[in-house]
Design a protein that fits this description.
about 500 residues; alpha+beta; Sulfite Oxidase, Chain A, domain 2; Immunoglobulin-like; 3 domains; 5-stranded mixed sheet; 5-stranded antiparallel sheet
Length: about 500
């Protein structure tokens, strides 16, 4: 049993060496071509929508790390089996490791924008893993021979373990040094946003900050890694039903007149009271200015099909994207170039629409077409094509199931109603009683969320607190419950607290 487990460990270690060196190779070419990430991305694409929604609700921002960890655990379990087989039939065990890499190579090649060069990391893994297993096998044979020394095995394990670790660290370091957003100098906006009023951040403990720092802004996308793109190599192509095809470089985009807008983004996966919403100041070129460079052709087109660097597509209704709202081809976020995880070098930001039809990150193409002719990633998975963000209010403080002292309790949070005149009112209800008007924080604009708070004289016992919002156009938040699929969650945020 002991020797069998040792050979299983050899299979795992050999595979980790292959993964580590492949990670370096991917960092030097395309990080998305890393074998584990390629397999994980394929798993995401094949996962049914209800399971994806469950993962987001259950694991939040940790869903990607858990998926990568699960894929890696499965790979290493198979690698352990291959190592055990190699004890008796080395060629068969080594072949099993190559077969594992072959699965990753297939995943790499099935990506929409795959190129032959993307196979290089898989090739590295396919060579390194069997070679590492052979080195371990020879060390083991030497150790069990007449003059064998266990020290040889230990040194070999240590050396290969170090190679695997160095490969993983080096790959991450190389990626971080490529095309850094902080090296980009953004132009001053030709149309700057007015100063954002001071929020209630320091007045209501526990309330969401009026402006979300870049590091705290939610991230929900289909990418397992953080893409590393160079602004120098980036281009944006506008094609399809246009007067002429146009391709812009990053410098050409920066040379266009920029506008600055405060806009709240919301993910369609956000459940009632959920965390996937954030407010930021965005810098970019109006989307209509970019489309005008190509000229919108006939009136046949009814969607903008936007494509990211890896071929991921998102569809936006053309009439909503060009109806006068502040739709941006964005390059900046809160006074800085876009962070990598939020779309560097360029992304779409269209207020009032859930991100799955409006917020393409790592943007490279805008195609004017029809829903009949082309279907985007989420459209193929039966999500809605027209998904305006629903009016919502969220309680940030107190937290659900909090233990509170009797007396004056501040209930506070945020509310949003993009493209409906902003938030005109927020009301709070305790234990099913009458709705009471809350006090509103400063107004950051119609497309920006608004903080609110209410002072509640809490008495001992269990209490249920609910909140609802009213938009500037008079539309109230609906109490009808709906799940995120297919066009966004609805219902009132309500929570239970205990007062003693």
């Amino acid at each position: 049993m002991r020797i069998r487990l040792l050979w299983a460990w050899y299979g795992v270690l050999a595979t980790l060496v292959g993964i580590g060196l492949a990670h370096v190779a991917a960092a030097l070419t395309d990080p998305a071509a890393s074998p584990v990430l390629a397999v994980g991305s394929t798993v995401i694409d094949l996962t049914p929508t209800p399971m994806k929604e469950w993962a987001i609700r259950t694991f939040g921002n940790a869903d990607k790390a858990i998926l990568v960890g699960s894929v890696l655990a499965g790979v290493l379990a198979l690698a352990a089996l291959a190592g055990a087989v190699a004890r008796h039939r080395f060629t068969l065990g080594a072949g099993a490791l190559v077969a594992l890499v072959g699965v990753a190579a297939i995943a790499v090649l099935t990506r929409p924008e795959a190129s032959p060069l993307d196979l290089f990391p898989s090739l590295v893994a396919g060579i390194a893993a069997p070679v590492a297993l052979r080195i371990l096998a020879r060390a083991q044979a030497h150790a069990t021979g007449p003059d064998g020394r266990r020290r040889t095995v230990l040194l070999t394990i240590a050396a290969l373990g170090a190679a695997a670790a160095v490969g993983g660290v080096a790959g991450r370091l190389i990626s971080s040094l490529r095309a850094r957003p902080e090296d980009v100098a953004l132009p001053a906006p030709a149309d700057p946003a007015p100063p954002l009023p001071r929020g209630l951040d320091d007045q209501v403990p526990g309330i969401t900050r009026f402006r979300t720092p870049n590091a705290d802004f939610y991230r929900v996308d289909t990418r397992l890694d953080v893409p590393v793109l160079s602004a120098d190599d980036w281009t944006l192509t506008i094609d399809g039903d246009v007067g002429r095809k146009v391709t812009l470089t990053f410098d050409e985009l920066l040379a266009m007149p920029m506008v600055e807008r405060d806009i709240t983004l919301t993910c369609v996966s956000n459940s009632v009271g959920g965390p996937y919403v954030g407010g930021a100041r965005w810098l970019g070129v109006p989307l209509t200015d970019v489309l005008d460079l190509a000229g919108i052709g006939s009136t046949r087109a009814d969607q903008i099909l936007s494509t990211d660097f890896a071929g991921m597509t998102i569809s936006t209704p053309l009439d909503l994207a060009t109806d006068g709202r502040d739709a941006l081809v964005a390059v900046g976020m809160n006074g800085e170039a876009l962070p990598r995880e939020h779309g560097f070098p360029v992304r779409l930001v269209i207020p009032g629409l859930y991100g799955f039809i409006s917020a393409t990150k790592w943007l490279t193409r805008l195609t004017l077409t029809t829903y009949d002719d082309q279907r985007a990633y989420w459209t193929e998975r039966d999500w809605a094509t027209d998904a305006p963000i629903k009016i919502s209010a969220r309680i940030d403080t107190p937290k659900a199931l909090a233990e509170l002292d009797a007396g004056d309790v501040v209930v506070g949070g945020v509310a949003w109603a993009q493209e409906r005149g902003g938030i005109a009112g927020v009301q709070v209800r305790v234990d099913g009683g009458a709705w009471v008007d809350a006090q509103l924080g400063p107004d950051g604009g119609d497309d920006y969320w608004r903080q609110w708070f209410h002072r509640w004289l809490a008495e001992p016992g269990s209490h249920r607190i609910a909140v609802r919002a009213v938009a500037g156009n008079g539309e109230p938040q609906t109490a009808v419950r709906a799940e995120p699929f297919p066009n966004g969650a609805s219902g009132l945020h309500e929570l239970l607290v205990r007062v003693s």
